[in-house]
Structures are given as structure tokens and as C-alpha cells.
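sorry for the late reply, my laptop died twice this morning and i had to redo everyting from scratch. anyway the thing you sent over, i finally got around to it. pasting the sequence first so we're on the same page, its 342 residues, then the predicted structure underneath. double check i copied it right bc i was rushing
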Amino acid sequence: MTTSNFYAEVLTSGQPIFAIAPMIDWTDRHCRYFHRQISRNALLYTEMVVADAIIHGPRERLLSFDGAEHPVALQLGGSDPAKLAEAVRIAGSYGYDEINLNVGCPSDRVQSGTFGACLMLTPETVAVCVAAMKAVADVPVTVKCRIGVDDQDPQAALPDLLDRVLDAGADAVWIHARKAWLKGLSPKENREIPPLDYEIVYRMKEARPDVFIGINGGIQTLDEAADHLNHVDGIMLGRAAYQNAAILADVDHRFYGAVADEADWGDIRGRMMAYAERHIANGGRLQQVARHMVGLFTGLPGARRYRQILSTDAVKAGAGPEVIAAAFAAVDFEGARETVSA
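ok and here's the structure:
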């Protein structure tokens, strides 16, 4: 991928994109570094970062990342075109491969700021924001949205939003195939209760063959992801990838044509230990790294003990990389090799 036009290249080449969704409190820099050790090609997303925080807050803490994370996209939250443009300018020097506008998060935090999923109600505002971001960005600017909110008719609301943001210059649209209910459902319930409607996303792509459209929401396995690629250009997994990151070990082979090598869990362990050691030396704590690794071997013999070690020992004062070594030692890696591509 190049940083300037990889979505256009995808449409030309037919190469799909496999992405790991932006997840607040989860996909921080340590999570992304960990995921990158398992897949070299998956497109990684930051947590949503509010434009105001970038403009007025601790930019280095909010925006810096390890170069190993590429390709990595910055997801922004906001509804003020000028502030979003300024956030894009500031982020430009950090080297992200994409800037994404959040038009799908239904949390109280974004509702109080009238952005996230609230923006589904004002597609004209989204278009102005995208145009402002495009004017200053030197990488693709994309949108991640829902199919609608509250009592909106997705058959009308979604194509209207897509047409407006594409006319404004958006390079791609990622669609979470559920409505969001701004009142009455929690963010967790909004990920589970509104029914999935993959077919409407397929229809959006069918009507726009020259536009990159990716799908998100409820995808649990790589087999399901592959099925979606019969209809759209990209697939995005969220909690399924976070809660059992071992499934990422087959992403490069299945979606990017890499040789089907078995995951070298010993090598991954060593790299994460070295990363944790650097983080601790810079004043960090092991738990900030280890918490993202807890679900790695879900369902395998020894996984319970692995989780116990990371969950209890990593939080102790003075905990170091040896905790990661002890956790990996509890796992049956033969079992991991047999099931990682399931």
C-alpha cells in the first residue's frame, strides 16, 4: 500500500482490505503493536480521538505510535469542519496512512458533542467536514458510519449520506451494518440488539462499483469475512479480533496471498517481551501492554492459566516481561497450530 492512494489501488487490483475496527479503550498503541506482530498486512485503526483533544491536549500522547504499526489509520471524532481540518494538519506530521471520520459511535460522550452517530442525522454536515479534511490531508480520508439512527429509514438515509460524502471527496466508506439508537440503548446494546442488515451494504456497493465500500458488524470468523468479500471491497472485525487475536495469524495468507506459515508464537512472545521492556523503561507499566493480550489463546488448552497470569501478575508492582513468558509457557502451542485458522 502507498499512503496516498491505496484505496484506489485496491479497486484497481481487486486486493481486499482486512481491517481491525477502531474501539474506544481497546485499540490503543499497545494493542495495535500487538496485533501487528500477528498480521503484517491488516489495516489497524486508532481509538477515536476527538479533534478538540488534538488541538488543545497532549498531542504526543494522543498521536504518537510505533512505526511497526503501519498501515495504521487515525480515527477522528468531531463535527466542526475547521477543527477537524486543524486536527488533520496536526496529525499530518505523525505519518498516519489514513484519516477516518467517526459517523457511527452512539456513546453518550459523542452525543453530548453532537458527533459520532449523531452525524447520520445531518449528512450535509458530514460532507462539509469531509471536504475540509480532504483539503488539508495528504492521505486518504474515509468515513465509518452506521446504516441509520433511530427512526431513520436506512433505504433513504444511507445512500444519501454516501452520495454526499463521496461527492465531497471521501476515498472510502466503512459501514457498520446496524442502526444505532441514540436513546434507549447503551453502546454495548447498540453493538448487539439492532439487527444486522448486510444486504443493504451489499446494495450500496452494487450501486457504486467504482467506490470502495467495506463492511463491519457481527463478523466473527475469517470464513464469514471471506464470504462478505463476494459483495464488498473490505471487511472489518472488531471484538472478534480483539477477544481472540489468534485468528489474525491467518489473515495474511487468506487475504493477502502470503505463504501459509504457522504462527511462530515463540517469536511473537519474544517481540512482545522486548516491547514491554522498552515501555517499562520509558515509565510505563506492564499491564498497559499485557491487558490486550489476555484473549490471545481463547479455547486452547492452557488458555485459562494464561489469562490468569496476565490478568493478575501483570498488575503487580514491578511486574516485568517475565510475566509474558510465564503466561505463554502455560499454553499448548500444538493446539494453537491446529486451530488458529479455524
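The chain has a mean pLDDT of 93.
thats about all i looked at so far, will dig more tmrw
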